[in-house]
Design a protein that fits this description.
Layout lengths: L30 H12 L19 H9 L1
Helix pairs in contact: 1-2
């Protein structure tokens, strides 16, 4: 059978998509870094341009980190 575009998004057992907001408790121990990062990007003394990169392997917690910053 011919594969459709929807077939590529099938759910794999044991995996789930990233969730936005309400990510729960910080089991990665990044709260201090999140708070420092939020202070940096919201500081009135920092003037554009500001370039930020967040790098890490799949599953390292990048989305969790960003969602904690948004919270």
């Amino acid at each position: 059978p011919k594969q459709t575009r929807d077939d590529q998004w099938k759910v794999l057992k044991g995996y789930k998509a990233d969730q936005s907001g309400g990510m729960g408790e910080d089991r990665l121990g990044v709260t201090g870094s999140v708070e420092a990062f939020a202070r940096l990007i919201s500081s009135k003394s920092v003037h554009p341009p500001l370039s930020i990169g967040l790098f890490g392997n799949w599953g390292a917690g990048k989305s969790f980190f960003i969602n904690k910053v948004k919270d």
